[in-house]
Write a structure and sequence with these properties.
Length: 154
């Protein structure tokens, strides 16, 4: 079976988290996932996702299949991005990736259309595992009619 690549966009205002994710991504060696340059704000994510001005060329700036979205960001939050996504016809599978263990945040994210709610892994090995699970989830989604794209066991 021929699988197509999957584009992943990380949206997180913490530069350290972006760098750590990049290191983990390289170490995970995913088969089909391709990481797009991360966005550091909700408004930056919306500009990218909408194909606004600089991002209009989808050959250079492909629309992501997976979105990893932090919630707590200055300006437009992850919740703002989720609200915006609800109004779009083309939506990536969106995983909230946050430090927040707040039940209200979790419920709100699901109510706004998040596919899953993940707590940021505590270290590099767990982050590598998360990336490998994303890659495997993508592969499995291409081989079944109605894929379950949730990652956690809840």
């Amino acid at each position: 079976m021929q699988f197509r690549e999957c584009y992943l966009l990380l949206v997180d205002d913490a530069r350290d988290d972006q760098v750590l994710f990049g290191v983990a991504f390289h170490a995970a060696k995913p088969q089909l996932l391709k990481m797009l340059p991360p966005r550091s704000s909700g408004s930056g994510a919306i500009r990218y996702l909408s194909g606004h001005s600089d991002f209009a060329d989808r050959k250079r700036f492909p629309h992501p299949d997976f979105l990893l979205l932090d919630l707590k960001m200055p300006g437009k939050s992850g919740f703002d991005v989720l609200r915006w996504l609800r109004q779009q016809s083309q939506r990536p599978v969106t995983y909230v990736l946050t430090d927040s263990t707040n039940k209200v945040d979790r419920e709100k994210a699901f109510a706004l259309g998040a596919t899953d709610y993940l707590i940021k892994p505590p270290g590099l090995p767990e982050l590598i595992d998360l990336i490998r699970r994303l890659d495997m989830t993508w592969q499995q989604s291409l081989s079944v009619a109605r894929p379950n794209l949730r990652l956690e066991s809840s």
